[in-house]
Fold these 3 entries.
Entry 1:
Amino acid sequence: MIRLVSFLFIALLAFSSNAMQHGGSTVSSAAGKGKNGTTCTIASLKCAKAPSASFGPKGKLWLAWVFGGHVYVQHSVDYGTTFSQPLSVNRIPEKIAARAENRAKIQLDNAGNIYISWTQSLNKPYTGNIRFSRSVDGGETFSQPITVNDDRQEISHRFDSMVVSDDGKVFISWLDKREQQAAKDKQQEYIGGALYYSYSDDQGKTFSKNINLSDNSCVCCRIAMALDNNNLPVIAWRDIYGNDAKNQIRDHSLITFSSALKPAKKIRLSNEQWKINGCPHHGPALDVDGNNIVHSTWFNDVSNEEQDGDHVLFYGNSSNAYKAMGFGQADKQSAHPYVVSIDHSALNQTVFLVWKEFDGKKTDILMKTSKDAGLSWSQNKVVSTTAGSSDHPLLVKNSKAVYLSWHTQDEGYRFSALSPTVLSADVK
């Protein structure tokens, strides 16, 4: 059954601090609103736009966020209780996309090298370049940013995603419209964009020639990336099925690699048959556990009768060909799920799912967990709440625990442990 989506998306737009627009060339200004509506004129975490988090060596937590045309980084040695002074990555300010679906990314390798990617917004609406910088001195200095996309037309190269291996191999994917532009120049039809990819085997000094992984992708939903047990990327994205521009099905696809430059044939990840002739600004998430099982979650605004429920969120994993488990409901405005797995042992792969719900007065972050790699699941638990606007919930892990990374208008940035304590008791 196809569902009317307008009410849900209007509500989601109203209660996200990074309104999920169709991506234009918005840039964070030097003055803006921070925590509790305070006016921001100096870069600080309370005024950050769309923070991303990642752990580095020795348990150090790193953040990347945007303010005033710069990407900033900070670190914490006490799990987010206090942070270092922010350091600018790009010396020269530029227009930077800083939204829930399209934010600056930060990753670290085992040597403590820091890798940053982001989307630079260009002057024309819905255009951009994929930018990259790195630090090889532990965050003291960062390299001059480079543009990863080798097509330099003023068109859309946006919505980057990045993963980095322990030894510093860098994998970046993004949504690209060069095929659409080429078709337009020939007065031909081309639906959507394309999923593009590039790879660095020298810790980000140089990148490979851009590779088109798949045509006809959705153009403004986040891409999910993780590394498998062979340190090769797994990528999931919202795809467009069918060749009828007026009757598009926007489900999800997934691709793996046999080597860094040899992608396998893509597979269909979701099959809810969501018919929508536009981008829903709602990308998937995925992670890979220690047994090389891929866990993924996604949003599709449909009623899945096979799951005997009125669900809009779904989870599947590679051990059962991504057979979908439905959860979350449209009347609760369930949205933006995220997934992470953590290895307690080869026989104990715990999976965490979080997502947002809005009851008309407040936004809750809900969580459910599986201690058997997705076979069975706990009851839903509320793990965080805010009355104001908020970012998407993100999950971050180190070798011992899983943490919720969440930015809210009223409370500011939150970084809170979800394991192991939350496995045995609700968080109030």
Note: The mean pLDDT is 89.
Entry 2:
Amino acid sequence: MELRFLNYEYPDNGGEREPELAQTQVLPVFNKPPRIIPEMDATGEIVIDDDGPVKKRVRKKRERAVRQKKENEGLKSAWRSISPALAALAAVVITLLLIAFAVRFVKNKFLRPVDPSDPTPIVVTIPKSSGASAIAKILYEAGGEGERGLIVNKALFKVYVDFLGRSSNLKAGTYVLSRNMGMRQIVDIICSGNPPRETVKFTISEGMTVEGIAARLVDKGILKSPDRFLELCRDAKSFAGSYQFVKKIVDEGREGRTYMLEGYLFPDTYEVFADATEEEIIVKMLDRFGEIYTRKYVERAEEMGYTLDEVVILASMIEKEAKTFDFNKVSAVFYGRLANDMPLHSDATLGYVLKTQSMEFTQEELDIDNPYNTYKYKGLPAGPISNPGTAAMEAVLFPNEQYITEGYLYFCLMDPTTGALAFAKTAEEHAANVEKYKPLWGN
């Protein structure tokens, strides 16, 4: 089949026109293409019959989509499987951390000793048929009114023994405990029903030296040897971390000082366990000094221009030179001599060097080159020469104002029986007093 295109022309023939066939053109005829219906797969992709590049790209894309879908479904399935386990594990970890924190907090806050540095024996009696609550009350109030007891919390003590199942094991009896014991140790002692630890008392008198105290402790059977006690007092570094006043002594390190702790072992009556260590005994004495030397003393010392160590040094000299009723007068004399840049001429300081109680010395002894010798060196000696009590320290801080005003600069022993002193303003008056009273002194 073919199509022809006819082209006519109209010639000019005088008004009438007839068409004339000018040209015939054959046009190509195309057959109608068949209708193609694409084939679709399950994913909605067109299925192409040929095996060309397009098909390969489409197939790869489809395969990737299927693979990604499977992977996503696998991940979701795996997460659904392990998420409960992970949540449970996280809960367990958090719970354990909270428990550990709670245990540590309770241990540090309530189970530790009330005062790790206080070995003072405290006797407690637990009556028969006492329950955990009653025992907790006894331990809490064991220190007496206004004082800390042996535990910091009554309710926690009961919870502690109940939790450990030891409530029924607490035994009646009399026990010697102390504030440096933890709750576990206290419970162990009460549950074991062990007999109380033996305690001993000893008294340190005003004016005793470190060496005298060591000898007293050995005599009482508390220490077997004075050596370690003396070494601890000589060095004192073991206590510098716990006591600021000891740290200052150690840091200043006065040249020639024999015992760093001389002057700071406060005289008093103490009770300790029979098996107490040298450190425990010294701690009790240093604690007592800290209790006595209050802020009032610190402020007064600052007013007078004294350091703590200077107060203790002067007090230790006054303690050895006079009886209590003359303390403030001797203090006034020392104050005046220091103000006038005069040597203190204290017999007690030279006696400390020579380890003698005699107050009469040869010229050779008076000339001994020693930082404690106040006949040879002006100012204060290298350190305290005894352990003074409260009265002597107060005498340093509150000297006799009248004697300062009137200018008393000398004293000597007047009555060996009472220990009363004779005071003088001038060297001539002092020499007359010595000549007058020396026959009474004896040897």
Note: The chain has three domains: 122-197, 200-291, 293-443.
Entry 3:
Amino acid sequence: MEHDATITLMTSNDENQVNQEIITILHEILASTEKEADVITYEDDNTQDPETSKKPTYKLITAICRGGGIGVNGDLPWGRIKEDMAFFSRMTRDVSDPGKRTAVVMGRKTWESIPSQFKPLKERDNLILTTATDNTQINQIHQPNQLNQTILDVPIYAFQTVAQLKKWCEETGYETVWVIGGESLYNDFLNDSACVISSVYITYIDAPFCCDRYFPRAFPYNNNMTLCYTHTNAQDELWNWNTTQFPGILSWNWNWFIQQSCGHHISSIGTPLYFLHYKRFIVV
């Protein structure tokens, strides 16, 4: 069936060139979908209707190496890369409204993996998902319905479910909520049928490392809307990206297209480094 579709891109002028390059991709998606589709909406983080303007924007940020690894033995496989640390800090603190705050969401193991000298993450509310109920297990984390705990003037809260956390974020009125890991939390958010993530920021470290925790498997497509890789059970095959051209679209339960690729850098540990930004679009 042919679709007479309107493509609406809610974006700023400086993104027009990128948007024009993906319009053909979006039309091909419409042509291949089996359901009626009237609009493809590009989700812009700063364009919201009045009914949803008070809701926070949810974003995800991660660093991965070849093979999709994100952690080993409760730590970063590559140690501390100062360029990535600076990028993470700047992105997760930044607000457009000085009267608002941001929050970082993490699992208990991620919280415990943060070096003591950097914990809690400053100038951001620290929100931790944990199934622990014993205060000795949750390592100085309080439930939000108890007295707010602060360390170095940083609020720290614990939640036992994602639903509780989302309710708290909406009531608190954060400008942006950043999902920062680990593996199970990334899976929970990216594969949720009611996904709230609008942007995925990936620091790609173009080198192999020994890992025991991995970023969720995705279906990467090139700019001709064909799969970039044959899908097998091998994690290495999926995330060994060709860094001359990153996948145009990543698909989990929803689809994200590449919005920006910030060049090629040699990191402080000598590995090539790429900063990638994928934004979600919806076929409705």
Note: Residues 1-43, 135-148 have pLDDT under 50 and may be disordered.
